[in-house]
Write a structure and sequence with these properties.
Order of helices and strands: HHH
Distance between the termini: 16 Å
Structural class: mainly alpha
């Protein structure tokens, strides 16, 4: 019984990681580019690092919304049917 619960939590966390990776990866890449730009130009504006990351992460989430929804539906079906 306890082993089933551990396995279910493990699968759920892995699914969450898979769904979050593209969004977080886009934020990481934009953050590196903005940081490089700030280092080269010596512009130390705090909002310059947050605004582009937020915009890109929202855009990636909107673009991948159908894929995320399909993955979540597949996961829910697997959880409820026990497969």
């Amino acid at each position: 019984m306890g082993e089933d619960a551990v396995q279910t939590v493990k699968v759920a966390l892995m699914q969450a990681l898979i769904l979050a990776t593209p969004i977080l990866g886009a934020g990481l890449i934009v953050g590196l580019i903005v940081s490089l730009f700030q280092a080269v130009t010596q512009v130390q504006e705090q909002t310059l690092s947050f605004v582009p990351k937020i915009i890109v992460m929202i855009l990636v989430a909107v673009i991948l919304l159908s894929w995320i929804a399909m993955q979540m539906m597949d996961f829910a079906v697997a959880m409820f049917t026990g497969t």
